[in-house]
Specification:
The radius of gyration is 24 Å and the shape is globular. The longest helix has 36 residues. The strands form four sheets. It has a five-stranded mixed β-sheet, sandwiched between helices. Strands 11-10-12-13 form a four-stranded parallel β-sheet, sandwiched between helices. It has a three-stranded antiparallel β-sheet with strand order 3-4-5, with no helix packed on it. By secondary structure, it is an alpha/beta fold. Helices cover 42% and strands 13% of the residues. Strand 1 and strand 2 form a beta hairpin. Among the domains are: 49 residues, no CATH class; 143 residues, Rossmann fold (3-Layer(aba) Sandwich), CATH 3.40.50. Helix 4 crosses helix 13 and helix 8 crosses helix 10. The chain is built from 14 helices and 14 strands. The structure holds ligand L6N33NVT and fe (ii) ion. The site of the ligand C=CC1=C(C)c2cc3[nH]c(cc4nc(cc5[nH]c(cc1n2)c(C)c5CCC(=O)O)C(CCC(=O)O)=C4C)c(C)c3C=C has 22 residues, from helix 2, helix 3, helix 6 and helix 12. Its main location: plastid.
Length: 480
C-alpha cells in the first residue's frame, strides 16, 4: 500500500471530475469521491510539471490523469482529496478480489477498423468522414456532414485504394485486433480473471454497435472499456467512447451496467518498457547503433483539435516520448531523438513538425542512420506498412539518409499484452454505472449558444418570410 502526501502519486481510489456543474458521489469507500461535470472543452491543467488533465467532454468519462514524471505504474492515476488517504488498487491486483465471484466480466477493445477489400475502401472512408469527431463542423452545419462525407470519400477513395492495394488489398487491422483480443483473454486468465473480450471498431466491421449487442446478449455484469490507442485524442478514443455513451444513454441495461473506461495508457510502465525493448532490438541491427537518430512518427491531428478543442493528444504524445527516452537512457541508450507527425489529410494545418519535412531536413543536416518508430498505434496498418515503409523510406533515402530501420508495432508482444491485462484488472474496481454520472455530455453554455444561434437565424428567416410578399411586390414594382 502506498501513501500519497503531495502532488505525485500512484493510484488512488478516487476519481475527480471537474467542471462547472459538478456534483459529488460516493463510490463506496470512505475516501472515494467522484465529482462529475459537463463541460465540452477538455480542460487541461498544465501549470504544474506533473500535468494532470481533466476530461469532461461530450463523449468521455472523466478521470484525472497525471503523466510524465510520475512513476508510470498504473493506467488510472487520479488525485486524492485528502493527503492522508492511502489506498491503492495494488491490494486487488493479484487476487482480483474487488469484484464479486458471480460477476460476468467483459472487456471491450475499441479500435478504428479498416477496409478488408478494395471495395470496402469508399464506404469505410464515408464512415470515417461522417464522424463529427473527424470532420468537426459547427452545429449549424451538421446537416452537411453526410453529403460532405460522401463527396470527400468519393474523391479520396482512388488514392486510398492504391495504398491498400500496395499492402495486399486491405487493412490487417481486424486480424491483428482479434489476435490481441485472444492474447488478452489468455493473459487475463493467467491473472485469475475470466473475461469475455469484445472488439468494437469505429468505422468498419465488427462495428462498436455489434460488440455492444453481443455484450448485452451475453449478460455481462461488469465492463472494462479499453481503446487500443495509447494516447487519447478526440478523433480516436474520444469518438469511440462517444458512440458508446450514446448507446448507454438509450439503453437501460447499459445505463445500469458498471463500466470502467481506460482512456489512455501510454504512461504505463509495461507499455513504455515494451516500446523501449522494441527500439533497442532494432537499434542493435545497425552497424553503429549509437549514431542512429530515433525518429518517433505519430499520427497527426488538425491543429485546431489541440488549440481550440483542448485535445490532450499532443501533450500526451510528448509525455509518452519523454517516458520512452527516459527508459532508454536508464538502460544506457543515449541516442538523439525527434518527434514528428504524419498522415495529414486535407488543406488545414495539422500538428507540426510534419514527418516528411523533418526527414528531408535531417538528410540535409547530414544524419546518415535513422530508426522510424510509429508511436500512436499498436498494430501494423496502412500508415506503417505503406506510408512509413514505402513513402517515407524512399524520401529519407533520397534526402541523404543511408541506413533506414523501422520499429514494428507492438501487436501481440507478450510484455505489452500482459500490461494491458494488468490495466484491465486495475480498472475493474472503479467500474460504475454511467447512468449515475450526471450530465456527462451536456454543456449548458453550449446548449445556450446553440439555442441563441437558432433563435437568431430563425428570427432572420421569419422576418424575411414575413417580408417576402412585400419584397416580391417591391421588386416587381421596381422592375416595371
Ligand atoms: C492515433 C491514431 C490516429 C489518429 C489521431 C487519427 C486521426 C485522423 N485520421 C484521419 C483520416 C484518416 N485516417 C485513416 C486511416 C487510419 N487512421 C489511423 C489512426 C489515427 N487516425 C489508422 C490506424 C488508420 C489506418 C487504418 C487501416 O486501415 O489500416 C484514413 C484512411 C487511409 C487513408 O486514406 O489514408 C483516413 C482518411 C483524420 C482526418 C484524423 C483526424 C481528424
Ligand atoms: Fe487516421
Amino acid at each position: 500500500m502506498e501513501c500519497v502526501r503531495s502532488g505525485v502519486l500512484d493510484l488512488q481510489c478516487s476519481a475527480e471530475f471537474s467542471g462547472k456543474s459538478g456534483s459529488t458521489r460516493s463510490c463506496g469507500k470512505a475516501s472515494c469521491y467522484a465529482n462529475f461535470a459537463g463541460s465540452t472543452k477538455y480542460e487541461q491543467n498544465l501549470h504544474s510539471k506533473v500535468k494532470p488533465w481533466v476530461l469532461s467532454a461530450s463523449g468521455t468519462s472523466s478521470f484525472v490523469h497525471r503523466s510524465p514524471v510520475l512513476k508510470h505504474r498504473h493506467n488510472l492515476v487520479v488525485r486524492s482529496t485528502s493527503a492522508d488517504v492511502c489506498t491503492t488498487f495494488d491490494e486487488n491486483i493479484n487476487g482480483v478480489s474487488s469484484h464479486a465471484v458471480e460477476d460476468k466480466v467483459g472487456v471491450l477493445l475499441l479500435n478504428l477498423g479498416g477496409p478488408e477489400t478494395l471495395n470496402d475502401v469508399q464506404p469505410f472512408l464515408f464512415n470515417l468522414f461522417a464522424d463529427p469527431d473527424i470532420i468537426r463542423l459547427p452545429r449549424l452545419f451538421r446537416f452537411l456532414q453526410r453529403p460532405l462525407a460522401k463527396l470527400i470519400s468519393t474523391f479520396r477513395a482512388p488514392k486510398s485504394k492504391e495504398g491498400y492495394a500496395s499492402i495486399g488489398g486491405g487493412s490487417p487491422l481486424r486480424r491483428i485486433t482479434d489476435d490481441q483480443a485472444n492474447a488478452l483473454k489468455v493473459a487475463l486468465k493467467k491473472k485469475n480473471l475470466e473475461a469475455d473480450i469484445y472488439v468494437g471498431m469505429r468505422y468498419w466491421y465488427p462495428f462498436t454497435e455489434e460488440a455492444i449487442n453481443q455484450i448485452k446478449k451475453d449478460k455481462i455484469t461488469k465492463l472494462v472499456v479499453l481503446p487500443l490507442y495509447p494516447q487519447y485524442s478526440i478523433s480516436t478514443s474520444g469518438s469511440s467512447i462517444r458512440v458508446l455513451q450514446n448507446i448507454v444513454k438509450e439503453d437501460p441495461y447499459f445505463a445500469g451496467l458498471p463500466i470502467s473506461i481506460i482512456e489512455s495508457w501510454y504512461q504505463r510502465e509495461g507499455y513504455v518498457k515494451s516500446m523501449a525493448d522494441l527500439i533497442e532490438n532494432e537499434l542493435s541491427i545497425f552497424s553503429t547503433p549509437e549514431e542512429v537518430m530515433i525518429f518517433f512518427s505519430a499520427h497527426g491531428v488538425p491543429l485546431t483539435y489541440v488549440k481550440d478543442a483542448g485535445d490532450p493528444y499532443r501533450d500526451q504524445m510528448e509525455d509518452c516520448i519523454a517516458l520512452i527516452m527516459e527508459e532508454l537512457r536508464s538502460r544506457g541508450t543515449l541516442n538523439d531523438h525527434t518527434l514528428a507527425y504524419q498522415s495529414r489529410v486535407g488543406p488545414v494545418q495539422w500538428l507540426k513538425p510534419y514527418t516528411d519535412e523533418v526527414l528531408v531536413e535531417l538528410g540535409q543536416k547530414g544524419v546518415k542512420s535513422l530508426l522510424a518508430v510509429p508511436v500512436s498505434f499498436v498494430s501494423e496498418h496502412i500508415e506503417t506498412l505503406e506510408e512509413i515503409d514505402m513513402e517515407y523510406k524512399e524520401l529519407a533515402l533520397e534526402s541523404g539518409i543511408e541506413n533506414w530501420g523501422r520499429v514494428p508495432a507492438l501487436g501481440c508482444t507478450s510484455s505489452f499484452i500482459s500490461d494491458l491485462a494488468d490495466a484491465v484488472v486495475e480498472a475493474l474496481p472503479s467500474a460504475s454505472a454511467i447512468a449515475t454520472r450526471k450530465a456527462i455530455d451536456t454543456d449548458p453554455d453550449m446548449d445556450m449558444m446553440h439555442s441563441l444561434t437558432k433563435m437568431f437565424f430563425g428570427s432572420i428567416l421569419a422576418f424575411l418570410l414575413l417580408l417576402s410578399p412585400r419584397l416580391i411586390l417591391a421588386v416587381r414594382n421596381t422592375l416595371r
